[in-house]
Write a structure and sequence with these properties.
The complex is a heterodimer of chains A (344) and B (736).
Chain A lengths: L21 E3 L5 E3 H7 L4 E3 L6 E3 L4 E2 L5 H16 L10 H20 L3 H14 L1 H8 L4 H48 L4 H28 L69 H5 L4 H13 L10 H20 L1
Antiparallel strand pairs in A: 1-2, 1-5, 3-4
Helix pairs in contact in A: 2-3, 6-7
Chain B lengths: L1 H9 L2 E5 L6 H15 L6 E6 L2 H22 L6 E4 L3 H4 L11 H12 L1 H9 L7 H10 L7 E3 L1 H11 L3 H8 L5 E5 L1 H4 L1 H7 L7 E5 L5 H9 L1 E4 H24 L1 H13 L21 H5 L9 H19 L5 E3 L1 H12 L3 H5 L1 H12 L8 H15 L4 E8 L7 E9 L3 H10 L2 E6 L7 H6 L3 E6 L9 E8 L16 H17 L3 E6 L2 H14 L1 H8 L1 E4 L4 H16 L4 E6 L3 H5 L9 E5 L9 H14 L3 H18 L9 E6 L6 H4 L4 H4 L9 E2 H15 L5 H4 L7 H5 L1 H13 L1
Parallel strand pairs in B: 1-11, 1-12, 2-5, 2-6, 3-4, 3-5, 6-11, 13-18, 13-19, 14-16, 14-17, 15-16, 17-18
Antiparallel strand pairs in B: 7-10, 8-9, 9-10
The chains are: A mainly alpha (344), B alpha/beta (736).
GO molecular function (chain A): cyclin-dependent protein serine/threonine kinase activator activity; zinc ion binding
Protein name (chain A): CDK-activating kinase assembly factor MAT1
Keywords (chain A): Coiled coil, Metal-binding, Nucleus, Zinc, Zinc-finger
Chain lengths: 344, 736
Amino acid sequence: MDDYQTCPKCKTTKYRNPAMVLMVNACGHALCESCVELLFAKGSGACPECKCPLRRNNFRVQLFEDPAVDKEVDIRKRILKEFNKRQEDFPTLREYNDYLEEVETIIFNLVFDIDPTNTNKMIDNYKKENKDITQKNRNRQSQEEMELEELLEAEKAQQSEKANLYVNAELEEKKQKHKAREKLIDELMFSDADAKSIVASHVQATAALAKEQPKVAAQPSSVVVKSSKFSSGVQIGLRGQHTNAFLPIPKQEDLPLYRYTAPVFDYDGPPPPPIEKLGKLNYFANIRAANITERAGGYTEAMSCCRALQEALGGLFYSPQLTHKTAVLATNSSTQDTDDMETT
Amino acid sequence: MLELKRALDAKGHCLLEMPSGTGKTTTLLSLIVAYMKAHPLDLTKLVYCSRTVPEIEKVMEELRKLMNYYEKEMGMEQNILGLALSSRKNLCIHPSVSKEREGKVVDGRCYSLTASFVRARHAADDAVPICEFYEGFDAHGKEFPLPPGVYNLDDLKEYGQTKRWCPYFLARHTIIHANIVVYSYHYLLDPKIAEVVSKEISKSSVVVFDEAHNIDNVCIDSMSVKITKRLLDKCSNSITILETTISNMKENDSKRLEKEYKRLVEGLRDATIARETDMALVNPVLPSEILEEAVPGTIRTAEHFVAFLKRVVEYIKTRLRVQHVVQESPAGFLRDIHTKVCIDRKPLRFTAERLASLIRTLEISDLTDFSPLVTVSHFATLVSTYTKGFTIIIEPFEDRAPTVSNPILYFSCLDSSIAIKPVFNRFQTVVITSGTLSPLDMYPKILDFHPVIMTSFTMTLARPCILPMIVSKGNDQVAMSSRYETREDTAVIRNYGNLLVEVAAAVPDGIVCFFTSYLYLETIVSSWYDQGIIDQLQRHKLLFIETQDAAETSLALINYIKACDNGRGAVLLSVARGKVSEGIDFDHHLGRAVLMFGIPYVYTQSRILRARLEYLRDQFQIRENDFLTFDAMRHAAQCLGRCMRGKTDYGIMVLADKRFSRADKRSKLPKWIQEHLKDTNCNLSTEECVQICKRWLRQMAQPFSREDQLGISLLTLEQLQSEEMQKKILQRAQGV
């Protein structure tokens, strides 16, 4: 495999020299190890292909068949160190996806050297703006990674536990069989009873055992894997600090403060007089005034009067044919009439 | 029928074992059709799944007979539409495309003639070729439903020829309103195809899986992916093609890419996916909540996605460069791919979907080149979706040739219930049936469902027409066994040879022998040759051998049949789990005796099998040994069942291994074989076996007419209606 890998400088192939190792640097061009030693004896020099200035200690072993991928992964790792926002940092999925695409564009530009000045500017801008988040995110794992880690750990624990259990169960079974057989032989040797009846009873005993077997086999499954959690669900161990075992502190949203706006009612009839004016308009003349006990609870006669008026006037203009709009128009035009009526 | 009716009434699933040749298919069809007629609202459709094209044809024949009978008895046209569906390869009538021999090529060429964009291009420019049959179907076929009747593949083709409509699309369109659909397992089980073909089948259908003894393996295969080095190299090629096409398109027609991009930004699911011709690329099962989400930003633009694919492929290449076997879980793989090439789980999940969308946008009409890339994208999607029930095994070389490096990545499904779960959940009744399903209780466990009915039926026979025997030792009293320790023992091999020679001398016409593996077959035959057994054998009969090459095997089969037909007599040496053991019937004189040399255990050292065993043990509490025995016995039963294809048939079944006589193996044989396996026949030597054979054959060779069966295994209408019989039936119905 990989026999056709060739060093572009000295033309050695993997086939001729199986020990050859290709190295790559930041520019993404490959060189074999001996060429690197020769060309970069001083510690730095230019890439023989693109004349890009390189340092010797930045050379790494080429991992992928295509050195361009090596380069891309390199750049990607560097960029992702800075651009490490998570989905939790964005209010909507859409914005997060836009951000992801932006990152991808930056990486793409860097790999193919498209518009380097602008790209670098973008990176610098981003670095300045998002210093805190970057710093914060560096120390915590993303939700997904954590999930994976947990899965892996659970798998490992389960595997070792189960393997042990089954080995033990099988050993136990073998032992029992052995014992039973020895018992049978002993009995046949020393007992005076009929050999046939002894064998028959033995067969019965083994059958009974066999019936029990499934239960034994099923048992190990019910044995709980050694718990790695407290009963409250908090992980035992260091990693517990990072998991969000506690409820997260509610985030302070940067939203505008709440402002009260009075609700507008659509009475669909002449507007009832406001509650403050009822006394002036002499509405209380015809109703019973609230007594002391009633007023103690905060009740005034204005309340019930207002409610009655609203009920009486509401829906007066309602007609099934009229649309909502015309109804509103009608109320506007009729307001004056009602005013007249009230004054009279 | 009684049990089936109960299952239908209960709207639950059932598991039925019926011996082959006793009218399994007819029973199922007639009852379900009758039920459909009686309760048209409860039961709207029958989906009958079989394995191979000849089997599908057989079912259609049975259905036609049934319909003719209905017509004769009821005296009017039946309003039932039954049809068979197969791949494009079997249904295409396009003059040049249908000449292609490989299924994939036919699919690709069909796609290049019928994809929506090709047709759009054709509308603008007449030089672009399209398929006239599809055009005909598209123009007229959708309005006129197929007249009721029974259509097999040839009928469909003929109908298509006369109307100038494409039979394949006609059949696919008709599935929706047909009453009876007969097709292959894969249309229902393989999530990649099922999504397209079987999506619209209503819940109130009955699904029948015939010959379903291997159903768990079919399920597993449909979810597994195998990636080789060559496949990856092809992937790299197709990625370069993608790159150039994208850059071309950017220069000429960037609008289309922009449109796609916008759609992805909006997170809308592809509207075009519903278009039936664009189905060549479909994604494997994904939980629906993922499908509703928008494609992640990292792979939204076409260039980024191609770079992403490149990284995935290169990463897998590095993984294949291992020196020793690696086994890891999907979770481990995901973590590794994240640290090595910074690929998150989420974009991986969308790979298949995104690739399909891209290929559609680029209007690439020749899809055959992209199948490797599609395979990789399926792998990426599956690995990131399922963390349980799968494992990844990377083998740098084959076990048999450890010096030749041939790295393969197996992404193997361990849980057969994953693929079949949607089927059980969706349809009200699923019937799983075969001639050999024993032991029955294993299937509900490994497929993870709860059947309401689970029964094994026996045959009512007028004479003991099968003779199962367990031969455990040779004439020299050396135990016969294919155990690993005694495999190379010349005494055992000689005893097997003598058994075959003596049976061949006593039994007329055809004899079929099954070995546990090709390797074992070859070693045994070569040592028989040295011992002169082959010469002795050829004095009695001609000798044919099954090989791994399909063409060679079918040639051997043809000549075997010829030798049996003209009375010369022949012996066929074949392998359990091979082609012969699965699909070919040896009825009457073609198989008068079946010999099973050894117990056909699977190759237990295979890592995939080991992983599956472990999974079964952990998840379903099935012990390794239980599963291995179950698997071996169902294949042994399958081989034995080859020689019995009906009530008038008769055959000898010789199980030549000491271990068969143990209770755990014997009890796992199907009930209809166990019934005839007497205790006296369980521990025979070669000589005794031949004696019994001779006596039995003399008895069987007597003329056997229909009258002999009457009253026992065959009833006339009067007998059926007689009081005594009615009582018997009633008793059975209540007793069970």
